[in-house]
């Protein structure tokens, strides 16, 4: 299967997706006009073109009405990206047909000079976990893959090329080093700052939306339980 990584916007959720055919025409048209729906369609077209039977998209493949399903999905997310044959990274704020080669504070003023995809919390694991990542601009033009773009990706994220190329397996990286890659990243929900890092540290914990910053303390405790790396205290 292929899997999508993207910056969230006006999305289509699971409930809307499965109810699409039962909707009144006017309601269905409203959903189909959303940018998030077009993302799903374009991703499906790309997956078909690449010869895949299945595509997984976080916005419409998780029934978030079920807390058990949401918790399982978040705890499994890193593995799902890791097991995908290819990950499509959709950069909705890149109009050119080439990947940005250097920081541009005018064009990407609100995201440290790089496309917004690079400052989101969840996209960190979505860059590291898959074997292959293909990047697309806002018009779904392919602008390079993870291997071709290693120098720029290292510059934009601080992640060493060896990790970009081969993932975290077998690497003896300190907790503080991995944490540093996430330092400038943002999430909409406070708790997601912690939840989006679980896969990178190989830890699992229940989701408790509403706990706020306590989520990060729980993440640190889980890391300490699994590791004797004292660099976590430096963080």
From TrEMBL:
InterPro entries: DUF8212, HET. Residues 215-235 form the DUF8212 domain. Residues 1-99 form the Heterokaryon incompatibility domain. It comes from the Eukaryota. PANTHER family: HET DOMAIN-CONTAINING PROTEIN. This is Heterokaryon incompatibility domain-containing protein. It comes from Pisolithus microcarpus 441.
């Amino acid at each position: 299967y292929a899997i999508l990584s993207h910056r969230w916007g006006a999305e289509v959720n699971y409930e809307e997706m499965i109810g699409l055919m039962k909707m009144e025409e006017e309601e269905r048209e409203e959903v189909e006009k959303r940018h998030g729906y077009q993302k799903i369609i374009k991703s499906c077209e790309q997956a078909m073109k690449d010869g895949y039977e299945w595509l997984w998209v976080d916005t419409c493949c998780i029934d978030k009405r079920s807390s058990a399903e949401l918790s399982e999905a978040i705890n499994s997310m890193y593995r799902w990206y890791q097991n995908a044959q290819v990950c499509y990274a959709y950069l909705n704020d890149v109009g050119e047909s080439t990947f940005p080669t250097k920081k541009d504070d005018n064009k990407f003023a609100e995201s440290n000079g790089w496309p917004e995809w690079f400052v989101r919390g969840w996209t960190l694991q979505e860059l590291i976990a898959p074997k292959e990542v293909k990047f697309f601009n806002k018009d779904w033009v392919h602008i390079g893959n993870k291997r071709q773009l290693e120098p720029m990706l290292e510059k934009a994220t601080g992640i060493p090329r060896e990790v970009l190329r081969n993932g975290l397996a077998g690497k003896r990286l300190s907790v503080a080093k991995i944490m540093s890659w996430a330092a400038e990243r943002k999430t909409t929900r406070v708790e997601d700052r912690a939840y989006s890092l679980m896969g990178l540290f190989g830890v699992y914990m229940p989701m408790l939306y509403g706990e706020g910053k306590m989520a990060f303390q729980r993440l640190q405790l889980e890391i300490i339980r699994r590791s004797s790396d004292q660099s976590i205290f430096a963080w």
